[in-house]
Amino acid sequence: MVMGFGIDIGGTGTKGAPVDLDAGKLVGERFRIPTPQPATPQAVAEVAAQIVAHFPDTEEVPRIGVAIPAVVQRGVARSAANIDTSWIDTDVDALFTEVLGREVHVVNDADAAGVAENDHGAARKEEGLVCVITLGTGIGSALISGGTLVPNTEFGHLEVAGHPNAEKWCATSAREREDLTWQEWAERLQVYFSHLERILSPDLFVVGGGVSKNSEKFLPLLDLRTPIVAAKHRNNAGIIGAAALGARG
Ligand code: BGC
């Protein structure tokens, strides 16, 4: 077994676990610590170090992968839509490598989830163009063509139906904030996914994020040309994909 290690930084919780990279599965139970507030890069890196310390048998993992909700280009964070603005322009690869005392590679959270679903999850059998959308506090996206990830697509921030920032209108947080019924929310998702379908012509949509466990309440309400399925790894996709992308470097 080739072992990796993935950490997924979310708005409320930071979770990590060793990952069997061949099988795309967690090795044992994941460990979670509430994300510190304010969630500055330094504070979050210290929590990540505590998570790694919880698994003393992972010292031989060559490089740890960390998923964050931001654009990450060559290890440098470039955006901060739902996180502390001090992440912007931080060399997160260098910071995490220093604080953890181990080599670390940081990637976008939706890209990590997308890679997990593409390699070992709901899109495993699809060789064409896969668009993974995570619905949570924000909307994350991953675009994978023939197994190759196009990173940092940020489709959550598209303008749709006159709404300048799609995630403010149709993420899970919008459903909760506005107390929308599943039907009302699905009507917004219909507009959003139809737009993605028009601009991308994907072969498959995969829907991730915590709400994917309730997928039967809203996916059947959508009418699209493209098949749309729930993510397989749900809340572990970020950890699994971070470990895989971390190992690739
Ligand atoms: C961020 C993305 C992130 C997504 C899901 C968006 O607000 O801009 O980088 O992938 O939220 O966390």
Which topology of the largest domain does CATH recognise? Answer: Nucleotidyltransferase, domain 5
User: Any idea what the CATH superfamily of the largest domain is called?
Assistant: ATPase, nucleotide binding domain
How does the overall form come out from the CA principal axes?
A: globular
Count of DSSP-assigned helices = 7
Structural class of the secondary elements?
Answer: alpha/beta
Helix-strand sequence: EEEEHEEEHEHEEEHHHEEH
Q: Which molecules other than protein and nucleic acid are bound?
A: beta-D-glucopyranose
Radius of gyration in whole Å, from Cα? 17 Å
Q: Return residue spans where pLDDT drops below 50 for at least 5 consecutive residues.
A: none
Q: Can you give the mean pLDDT?
A: 97
Q: What characterizes the major β-sheet?
A: 6 strands, mixed
Give the CATH architecture of the largest domain.
Answer: 2-Layer Sandwich
**How many domains in all?**
2
**Number of DSSP strand runs:** 13
Termini gap: 19 Å
The percentage of residues in β strands lies in 15-25%
Q: What is the helix fraction of residues, given as a range?
A: 25-40%
Q: Just give the CATH class of the largest domain.
A: Alpha Beta
Could you explain the architecture of this structure?
The protein is α/β, with parallel strands linked by helices and 249 residues long. It folds into 2 domains: 3-111 and 236-248, ATPase, nucleotide binding domain (Nucleotidyltransferase, domain 5, 2-Layer Sandwich); 125-231, Nucleotidyltransferase, domain 5 (2-Layer Sandwich), CATH 3.30.420.40. It has helices at 41-53, 92-100, 109-120, 166-170, 172-177, 182-200, 237-248, and strands at 3-9, 13-20, 25-26, 31-34, 64-68, 72-73, 76-77, 104-108, 129-135, 139-145, 148-150, 204-208, 228-230. Strands 1, 2, 3, 4, 5 and 8 form a 6-stranded mixed β-sheet that branches. The protein has a 5-stranded mixed β-sheet with strand order 11-10-9-12-13. It has a two-stranded antiparallel ribbon with strand order 6-7. The protein is globular, with a radius of gyration of 17 Å. The mean pLDDT is 97. The protein binds beta-D-glucopyranose. The site of beta-D-glucopyranose has 16 residues, from helix 3.
